[in-house]
Design a protein that fits this description.
EC number: 5.3.2.-
Distance between the termini: 44 Å
Order of helices and strands: EHEEEH
Structural class: alpha+beta
Family: Belongs to the 4-oxalocrotonate tautomerase family.
Strand order of the largest sheet: 1-2
Pfam families: Tautomerase
Organism: Oceanisphaera pacifica
Largest sheet: 2 strands, parallel
Oligomer: single chain
Enzyme class: isomerase
Length: 66
């Protein structure tokens, strides 16, 4: 049973997440030759202030760029 944990910066729509779940499931079915009902996908939204790149939070980068 494949279990995939996908972390995303917050802000994706419900529709985008549904599309991601479908596409990743389809990829697992094809690559691993498993049934779709055995694929588990966990999506984790990460707040922009809780994710850093190059020593600065994404939130701070976005605020500076605005």
């Amino acid at each position: 049973m494949p279990i995939l944990n996908i972390a995303l910066i917050e802000g994706r729509s419900k529709e985008q997440k549904e599309a991601l779940i479908k596409e990743v499931t389809d990829a697992c079915v094809k690559a691993l030759e498993v049934k779709p009902e055995t694929v588990r996908i966990l999506l984790q939204d990460i707040a922009t202030q809780d994710f850093g790149v190059a020593g600065e939070s994404v939130q701070a980068k976005r605020e500076r760029s605005a």
